[in-house]
Amino acid sequence: MTLRARNRRRLIGASLLAPLAASGRAENAARDDAPLRFGTTAVFLDDQMALLAAWQRYLERETGRTVQFVQRGNYREIVDLLLGDRIDAAWLCGYPYVAYESRLALVAVPVYQGAPLYRSYLIVPDKDARTQRIADLRGAVFAFSDALSNSGYLVPKVELVRAGATPEAFFRRTFFTYAHRKVVEAVRVGLADGGAVDGYVWDTLQAQQPLATSGLRVAWRSPAYGFPPIVARRSAPDARISPLVRALLAMPASDEGRKLLERLNIEGFAAGDSALFDSIRDLVRESAGMDPPRSRR
Predict the structure, then answer these.
(1) What's the pLDDT tens digit per position in 17-28?
(2) What SS3 state is found at 278?
(3) Cβ(277)–Cβ(220) under 8 Å?
(4) How far is CA 228 from the centre of its chain?
(5) Is 25 a member of any domain?
(6) For burial by CB atoms within 10 Å, which of 154, 165, 181, 198 has the most?
(7) Euclidean distance between CA atoms 151 and 282, whole angstroms
């Protein structure tokens, strides 16, 4: 092949590759400018759409990036989106965080009643004056919130394990509602004889919507555990997550942020420490054979 022919081939090759290179640069730029995708489940107690819209406006202004809330009906779906790199961050529970912490990073932990902690509550009807703990509900119908919920599943199940039982053998029937508020409703209307809920959700319902908890009482409160955290996928670039961290930690410093925190019934967000969830890790270890199912990915 002559020198002229070789040069001509190189020029043709370069002209063919140039659009591909430009396309790659544009795709990378689009990725860098892509919205911050934030996953949530049915955890909010206020007018959910209005609250999310207000929080979205706050986060967009503070991060300088478009924010999209991605809502799903249970923790499993949110975990799969995180592990599949289809969302960047999510308000999750401590149980799936410790189960998948090799691929998830702490972003922030809510501060509630002065600490980044909460409890699991066992709730029953007021008319049930006998029940003081879950072991008193043998043969009952019981409502769990979510199979990946610490307060709504792991804590009560470990209590039964300690009593030498399993939910399947101990209760007449169990079911999942996939929202703590729906556990409250199930017990209130008589679909369940008892249920396990996030104490923060119960306390907030009592304060904001007392009719939702009327006719019910808290029979037992668990020890304190790390509050359900906001996490990010470890594969997310720091340039996407760091502004979110700053925006969350700064919420108490502005009128808008404080109003949002009031609606969420929390005092703010702390940076958090992985050790905060050691007690949940202990529950997972104690509950042999109870590790959550692996991601479908």
Answers:
(1) 334 333 343 333
(2) helix
(3) no
(4) 6
(5) no
(6) 154
(7) 14
